[in-house]
Write a sequence for this structure.
């Protein structure tokens, strides 16, 4: 199973249930994606939790963002999947859903939003689309 897609499903289910917080298992990729969601204003915050018994972090607590009882995050969809990877060159980024949704890319300089990648002239793997 795809752990990133699983995290997106957990986030969508928590938004639909009007929950304030949720926990997902830890990974560096998830942390990078959550950092971009925080920068763009789709989630309020996240915190990496490390158990005292374990050497490495075990989970991430995500605090969802609500404005006037409406979630800032309406939909999050995985674009590039393990079975079918989706890549976009720097020139193709202007053709993506710019303005209607935010797109998170994995580039050679790290995980970043569509706007940052366009500014730096980078392309990469399209991870997800967020509305």
């Amino acid at each position: 199973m795809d752990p990133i897609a699983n995290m997106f499903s957990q986030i969508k289910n928590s938004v639909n249930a009007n929950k304030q917080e949720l926990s997902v298992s830890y990974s560096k990729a998830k942390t990078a994606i959550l950092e971009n969601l925080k920068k763009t204003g789709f989630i309020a915050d996240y915190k990496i939790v490390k158990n005292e018994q374990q050497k490495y972090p075990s989970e991430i607590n995500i605090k969802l963002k609500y404005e006037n009882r409406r979630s800032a995050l309406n939909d999050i969809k995985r674009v590039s999947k393990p079975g079918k990877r989706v890549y976009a060159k720097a020139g193709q980024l202007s053709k993506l859903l710019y303005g209607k949704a935010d797109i998170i890319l994995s580039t050679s300089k790290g995980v970043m939003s569509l706007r940052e990648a366009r500014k730096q002239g980078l392309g990469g793997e399209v991870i997800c689309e967020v509305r």
Notes: Residues 3-130 form a domain with the Dna Ligase; domain 1 fold (CATH 3.30.1490.10). The mean pLDDT is 93.
